[in-house]
């Protein structure tokens, strides 16, 4: 589920609910002070609607009850007389029903907008992010890299022989395999990392503040586990992965995405079923040392056998 932006008040429903209660009380006091000649009906609806939108249906209904009760108490305390004792309770019930209807409509609208936003940034099949979402995340991380200078790693993984699964077992089997891959990768990266399906059988992972050593540890493990899972489930696939750690920000998001893509295709054009690591913008770009080699195609790693 996508989280709202940092400044979104929907991240603070308790504060909004408390403010709604205070506003209902203030409107009730104003309603009492002005007597029965002036109506403040619409003003009660404003905090109810805001709370329903921000804090959800339950909080909206609770504030609706409070608003209807305060309205009735202010009306009676203001000296409004009725021909029958049950009339103020009837009016309060009608007002409550109106508030609840508005609350439900706003909550449904908010849920629909949330789903639409989620579908716009989520791959429907695997639940991973889609291309649009990872491009937005990559842009934010590039800005962070330029500002703070902390390394950023991005990886591309492609399934070798994926077409054979679809041809042999059908597209349902292929879809199940893609979901398995997404679950395996997601279970072995951090919550702050972005896993995306770019389309077809290609995945990308964006790892903020991750240096070359940490990236190697992560993707050696991921590659090994993917291989084990594929063999255990009988899928005739392997995995080609390119991993690039950036110590300097590429000129654009497009350039950032091209780096692991090219490296991954070099893996596929050679032995396949391997992980290759490179760095971009290291302090010593001409030095091919053990910690941060600028280009290490000759050190492509194959995962150990599942029973190793």
Keywords:
308 residues; alpha+beta; five-stranded mixed sheet; 9 helices; elongated; disordered N terminus; disordered C terminus
Largest sheet data: 5 strands, mixed
Uncertain regions: pLDDT < 50 for 5+ in a row?
A: 1-7, 284-308
**Helical stretch count?**
9
- Rounded to an integer, what's the Rg over CA atoms? 29 Å
The SS-based structural class is alpha+beta
Instruction: Return the average pLDDT rounded to an integer.
Output: 84
Care to count the β-strands? 5
Classify the beta-strand content into a percent band: 5-15%
**Straight-line distance between termini:** 37 Å
**Strand line-up of the largest beta sheet:** 2-3-1-4-5
Overall geometry:
elongated
Helix-strand topology string: HHHHHEHHEEHEHE
Portion of residues within helices = 55-70%
Short description:
56% of the residues lie in helices and 12% in strands. The protein is built from 9 helices and 5 strands.
Task: Give an overview in words.
Helices cover 56% and strands 12% of the residues. The longest helix has 35 residues, at 87-121. The two termini are 37 Å apart. It has helices spanning 13-34, 41-55, 57-77, 87-121, 131-148, 162-169, 171-186, 212-232, 253-269, and strands at 152-160, 194-199, 202-207, 238-246, 275-280. A 5-stranded mixed β-sheet has the order 2-3-1-4-5, sandwiched between helices.
List the helices and strands and how they pair.
Elements: H1 13-34, H2 41-55, H3 57-77, H4 87-121, H5 131-148, E1 152-160, H6 162-169, H7 171-186, E2 194-199, E3 202-207, H8 212-232, E4 238-246, H9 253-269, E5 275-280
